[in-house]
Design a protein that fits this description.
The complex is a heterodimer of chains A (357) and B (191). Chain A is an alpha+beta fold and 357 residues long. Chain A contains 7 helices and 23 strands. In chain A, strand 15 and strand 16 form a beta hairpin. The longest helix of chain A is centred in the first third of the chain and has 37 residues. The chains are: A alpha+beta (357), B mainly alpha (191). Chains A and B meet through helix 1, helix 2, helix 3 and strand 6 of A and helix 2, helix 3, helix 4, helix 8 and helix 9 of B.
Chain lengths: 357, 191
């Protein structure tokens, strides 16, 4: 019997032998894990540094000359006007560096660049509307029978707004990736978040809404709340504005009521009473700080405006309270900050360096 | 953590994600492609160190030049072709260009180990497998290569053609010639 089958297969003898060989090779050549991705990355870093230095040198020579002269005249203390000038220069430069990193939507139908000003809208059938960078409005029909998976990536310095097929709205903050289907399956709605999102979930008792993050799972029955779960941030949080949610994370389960926060810090979860509006103020282009350490303030600004800000380690000892209007550009925000606290701001490459004076 | 999502993507999606600057996508590609590139490279030029250097170079270059690269439907085919070109470049510095094709002739040697992994083999079956391999190994190197690309790497004729530098029809002809020859030899001196 076996022989008979084999004879029949002999028409493709090579195929029979060689398809086994594929598996054999996979096992044999992946066992020597000598060449890791880390090795590649360190080589890339090496080459990147020399290349990046060159680019920055050419691009910033004009700005640098201006800056060096000012630094010389004022004995390392730059006048605020000049700082502001150079900040806006460097902001411009940074954005040209990051032009290729616009808002990007990857679906199984392809890759789309989406305008920063565009809202993304899905109707109940999963058809999508958005506008391109050149302002052209596009309509994308959902003609597949299986669920289409969408991955929206919002880079540093950008924000986006999405209405899902069930009417749920997402306001997506900078440096965030959200994964969601064009149409939800019956009986269950689920999205994945890495970063910060403010959600207003359409109630539907027959179909609970789940938000999955790296460390938390949130079950929703129609409500609005904020999720902050940046992989790079130590603290992950859920803040409830209205309704009711159930959060699982760090081996703890909690039900939140409005103005309560579920916080994961140092791998332990806790429930706190907060003023929820402070945590969602970014959706109105405001940030509210309550005795916030300065290093965190600048980290948030860096993310919001998409520019590197580095500050000295002693910043963490000082705090700032108040409301910052982020509708202004970074130049004006820094101006306000430099009026409130005694800092020195310098521009290096595409980076702001902030030191206490 | 995000790797799960990459695995659901098609090659063209994954590649365009990498072209758009997603570094994790390239590391995922590396993880999946490394052993395939190594095993192909070794058959072209049996020096582990050189091949490994070439693979590393290849990925460093991909990373640094991702804005200039073109889309692809089959990442494996794209990378096999790139690796081959890279080997040519590296070796042309060291060797005489006229002998390069010979230096990089594909050698489809299957090691003994491979045959031992079929525990339910009866002798006849094993003999047949070994004989088949001997026949393949006797073929001209280009025919060995096309068998490898078609049946081990499972590429289509267009992709094979791109790697071998021939068109679709020639690739098809070359493969059918190779198969015909195997069949002929296999049955002609059957004991």
């Amino acid at each position: 019997m076996l022989l008979k089958k084999y004879k029949k297969d002999l028409d493709f003898p090579s195929q029979r032998l060689l398809s086994n060989y594929k598996e054999y090779e996979r096992v044999k050549y992946s066992s020597g894990k000598k060449d890791t991705w880390e090795g590649i990355m360190s080589e890339i870093d090496k080459q990147n540094k020399s290349r990046y230095k060159r680019i920055v040198f050419y691009c910033s020579s004009a700005a640098a000359v201006l800056l060096v002269i000012l630094l010389g005249l004022n004995n390392y203390f730059v006048k605020r006007d000049a700082i502001i000038e150079s900040i806006s220069e460097s902001v411009g430069k940074a954005s040209s560096f990051q032009n290729s990193e616009g808002i990007l939507l990857v679906t199984s139908q392809g890759c789309l660049n989406i305008s920063e000003k565009s809202d993304i809208y899905y109707d109940p059938e999963g058809n999508m509307m958005f506008s391109r960078d050149n302002g052209q409005l596009e309509y994308l029909e959902n003609n597949s029978n299986y669920p289409v998976r969408n991955e929206l990536t919002v880079p540093r310095g950008k924000r986006a707004k999405v209405t899902l097929s069930d009417g749920t709205t997402l306001q997506i903050n900078s440096e965030t990736t959200v994964i969601y289907p064009s149409v939800f399956d019956k009986g269950k709605r689920e999205i994945y978040v890495d970063g910060e999102v403010f959600l207003n979930v359409t109630p539907d008792i027959s179909s609970p809404f789940f938000v999955q993050t790296e460390r938390m799972r949130i079950k929703v029955l129609g409500t609005s709340f904020n999720v902050s779960s940046y992989a790079s941030d130590e603290e992950k949080s859920v803040v409830l504005v209205s309704g009711k949610v159930e959060v699982n994370g760090a081996n703890k389960q909690a039900c939140l009521l409005p103005d309560q926060m579920f916080l994961i810090k140092d791998s332990t979860a806790s429930k706190l009473n907060v003023k929820a509006s402070d945590y969602v103020s970014w959706t109105q282009n405001m940030i509210v700080f309550h005795r916030e350490p300065l290093n965190k303030v600048f980290h948030k600004l860096s993310r919001y405006y998409g520019i590197d800000i580095s500050c000295s380690s002693n910043m963490a000892q000082h705090t700032m309270s108040g409301k910052l209007d982020l509708k202004e550009d970074l130049k004006e925000v820094m101006e306000i900050i430099s009026e409130m606290i005694p800092v020195r701001i310098t521009v290096e490459d595409d980076k702001l360096i902030i030191e206490l004076v | 953590m995000m790797y799960g999502y990459y695995s659901e993507m098609s090659d063209s999606e994954l590649w365009s994600l990498f072209l758009s600057g997603d570094k994790k996508a390239l590391s995922y590609i590396y993880k999946n492609q490394y052993h395939q590139l190594l095993s192909y490279g070794i058959k072209l030029y049996p020096d582990y160190e050189v091949v490994r250097d070439c693979i590393q170079d290849l990925f460093v270059k991909l990373y640094l030049n991702h804005k200039k690269l073109s889309p692809t439907l089959n990442i494996n085919a794209y990378l096999l072709r790139s690796l081959k070109n890279r080997l040519y470049d590296v070796l042309s510095d060291k060797k005489d260009i006229s002998s390069l094709d010979e230096t990089l002739a594909f050698d489809f040697t299957i090691d003994e180990e491979f045959f031992l992994q079929f525990p339910d083999n009866d002798d006849i079956d094993l003999q047949k497998k070994k004989k088949l391999h001997e026949i393949i190994h006797m073929l001209p190197s280009r025919q060995q290569e096309i068998l490898y690309l078609r049946f081990v790497r499972e590429l289509d004729y267009v992709e094979i053609g791109e790697i071998l530098g021939i068109n679709y029809q020639s690739a098809k002809n070359l493969l059918s010639r190779s198969l015909a020859k195997i069949r002929k030899v296999f049955f002609s001196d059957k004991k």
